[in-house]
Amino acid sequence: MSSTIQVASLRSGVTPHVIRIWERRYNALCPERTCTNRRLYCDEDIHRLSLLRQLTECGHRIGGIARLSTAELESQLEKSRSRPVAAAASFTVDPALESPAEYVRACLDAARAYDSERLHRLLQRARIQFGQRCCVHQIICPLIHEIGDAWQLGSLRPGHEHIATAVVREFLMTPVPGSQVAASAPEIVVATPAGEVHELGALLAAVSARDLGWRVTYLGPNLPTEEIAACARNRCARAVALSVVYPMHCPVIQEKLRKIRGLLPESIALIVGGRAAESYSRQIQDPGILWAHDLPTLDQLLVRTASLSR
Question: pTM for the complete prediction?
Answer without folding.
Answer: 0.68
